[in-house]
Here is the input.
Amino acid sequence: MMNRQKIDAMLQTIEAECRITQGYTGRSSLRPEVMEAMRLVSRQEFVPPTLTAMAYENSPLPIGNGQTISQPFIVALMTDLLCPEKGDVILEVGAGSGYQAAILSRLVKQVYTLEIIPALAARATVILQRLGYENVVVRQGDGYKGWPEHAPFDGIIVTAAASHVPLPLQEQLKPGGKLIIPIGLPYSFQELLVLEKDQKGIFSTRNVLSVSFVPLTRAQIDSDVKEN
Ligand code: SAH
Here is the structure.
C-alpha cells in the first residue's frame, strides 16, 4: 500500500474509534483541523526505522528506552479535547517521539514540550528540526514541575499517566484553559481527564475514557518534596 492509502486508512480508523467511544467521550467526530493535522504529519518519521511498515496502524509503538509513541486515535482525541486555537501557547509533558508535539504545532502558535529521558529529548529535537517544526521547543526535564519560564499556558497536555494532577501544572494553566491528563496506576486503571480552569481559577473535571499510558516518572522526588 502507498503511504497515502495507509494514512487514509488510519484516518478512517480514527473516525470509527470516535463513533465507538462516543458514549464516553461525547464526541462522534473530531474537528476537521485536527483530522487535517493527523493527515499532514508523517507518523513514520517518528517511529524507529524497523517499524516503518506499521507506522500508520492505530496502535502505540515502541520508541526505545521502554517508551511508546501513543495510538493515533488517542493523539487525535487528546488534541481535540484541548480545543486548540491558532494563537495558543501549549505545554506538553512527555515529548517521547515528538509526534504529538508535531500535530499540535500545526494547530497553535507555540508548543513547549518536556521529556525526562535525555536520549528521547535529543532525538525528538533532531526530528522536529529536520521536518521544519519551528514552533516547537523540546527540553529535557521533569514535566511534573511544568515550565514556569513560559507559563501561563493556554492548554497543557500530559502524555504519561500520573497518580494525581501535578499542582505546578494546575498553577501554570491560564484561566479558561484546559489540562488533558491520564490519571491512574502505572499501565492500568487509568482515566483520561479533562480539567478546565474557570476565570476564578476553579477547576472542573470530566472523565473521558479508560486509557493505558506509560507512567509519569519523577527524577528527584526527594529534592522536589523539599522544594514544594
Ligand atoms: N507524546 C509522545 C508519547 C510519549 S510516551 C509521542 O507523541 O511520542 C510518554 C513520555 O513521557 C515518555 O517518553 C516518557 O519518558 C515521558 N515522561 C515520563 N515522565 C516524565 C516526566 N516527569 N517529565 C517529562 N517526561 C516524562
Summary: The longest strand covers residues 173-185. The pocket of S-adenosyl-L-homocysteine is lined by residues 67-70, 93-94, 96-97, 99-100, 114-117, 120, 142-144, 159-160, 214, 216-218 (CB under 6 Å).
